[in-house]
Amino acid sequence: MGQKYQQFYRRSIEDRDAFWTEQAALIDWNKPFDQVLEYSNPPFARWFVGGQTNLCHNAIDRHLDARGGQPALIYISTETGAEKTYSYDELHEEVVRCAAVLRGLGVGKGDVVLIYMPMIPEAIFAMLASVRLGAVHSVVFGGFAPASLALRIDDAKPKVMITSDAGMRAGRVIAYKHLVDEAMRLSQSPPEKVVIVNRGLDSNMAITEGRDLDYATLARQHAGEDVPVTWLESSDPSYVMYTSGTTGKPKGVQRDTGGYAVALAASMKHIYCGNAGDTMFTTSDIGWVVGHSYIVYAPLICGLTTIVYEGVPIRPDPGIWWKIVQDYKVKVMFSSPTGVRVLKKQDPEYMSKYDMSSLKHIFLAGEPLDEPTHTWLTEALGKPVIDHYWQTETGWPILTSVPGVEETPIKFGSPSFPAYGYDLKLLRESDASEADADEKGVVAIIPPLPPGCMTTLWGDDERFVNTYFSTFTSKLVYSTFDWGIRDRDGYYFILGRTDDVINVAGHRLGTREIEEAVQAHPNIAEVAVVGVDDQLKGQMPLAFAVVKDASRIATAELKAAEEKAVMAKVDAQLGAIARPRRVYFVSTLPKTRSGKMLRRSIQALAEGRDPGDLTSLEDPGALEQIQQAVKG
Ligand code: ATP
Ligand code: MG
Fold it and tell me: Which of 155, 374, 391, 463 has most ligand 1 atoms within 8 Å of CB, for mutation?
């Protein structure tokens, strides 16, 4: 940690109230707060108590005087060819109109609005309109199937749902409304009204009279109505967002209003180095937390221009992201390791085709960024690539480099240091004592969690405490359920999830460590390692790998030789104890559409069990390959 950042960080922990009071000045308050933190009932924290504010006001209204004509949102769809820019004035108009529509349907403070939509501007209008009214939105990722959507409907209990006739992905039409109809049938407590933004993509869309309403018609009816901002108490909820569900039943993360706005504004300044007037391009989806924080709220709260991209990274060609960077002079970019690994498999020509001089940093998060990919991207772009680590629960980074305070050298494979505000510790699993440098521990946060983090689980305070704060009996700490290690320079490395551990003949091995070793073989593009039952050793690792050069495994002999070579790499890096029982070569790995590896499903298949809920699976063919591989 650099000197300057170290001081900044220390102050955020040791002089917490003064630190966050300063950050709170980055947003507008209708009424100032009386107390920075109220923490009489741990682990429940309330930030900026007594203060009144509103996310929509901060994202739009407060900019109208100074930058009403500046682009606020630039929508680019490589699926339909649409491209449209909304200035702050225009965004204001759209959002007020949408708020009038929602208000007309009886939506008010505290009501839940469920948004199940593709990446179109109306999805963002709906989010902002909902917080404008003091309602609570719950955006469900459009890739989820009806059963998963129904589960979330039943937990969130929305008053109104907003959807679209269809989305598009890689040229294929996905009939959203059709999925919604199915989810409504499966749900125990379906909303009374469904508003449909009709893009004209699905001519077969069925309409349920009395329940289904056309957005364009309603918007015309409410045109010109004024909808003032509903001021909220700082700790009033702004949204519920369900975790990805990688490790089981999704959890409804509840976010407050004031703490979140302050956390995002502070992160834009100190971490992302984005200023009013700059352009930010976040390649995520509004269905994920990254989309909430860094496609919608943070850039708008800070007066930036945000790019909303509907499309995949390789269409029309693998240069599309960089073309967007060039054409719109993107300064801040935020993407994911999966996205980058997709590009790594393409012709490198696309990486140097466009003028990237506007780009300052590229940030990546969501899953481990392996060292080879980190190095590759840094060299290919010639820009600092910042790996940062966070969770749906926190809403903004936990571990990161903080270049707005101090540019510190990047170590490949490391998300650098604890973000300010987080009293982060690496704890020994045995007794919650602090691990030494170079010793693995559970990444934990001493509560209170800083502003912006979850305040509870939706409707379930008990599950909030039991899930996150009960790992250690001796201490009240928030567990991330991830392993980490800190080197002697203070840099952290994430070693995988605490439940992704394999026990081989009494040795506990993290699947992530084995994956890193496999990936050290130059022909491996990507790999998933899982532990499977083994009569002799308890568990054994199995590796499923994607190669870069398939000609090297073109025959059975070559394949066997490559498998041996990969095993030898693991032997050399970790010892024979960690050597996978088999290395299977597949052309693609099963992942959620947010790029998270479905290790549990792979493991289940490898052990001949049911792979579980697969509704967010990117490519069902990937699981078939796993099945074939273990059978053959
Ligand atoms: P669920 O909690 O429902 O099982 P999930 O944990 O996959 O789902 P997210 O909140 O989207 O849902 O993901 C957070 C997790 O992703 C982290 O706990 C960590 O395991 C992983 N992660 C995120 N960023 C990084 C990173 N930069 N390096 C390593 N791992 C990361
Ligand atoms: Mg999680």
Answer: 391
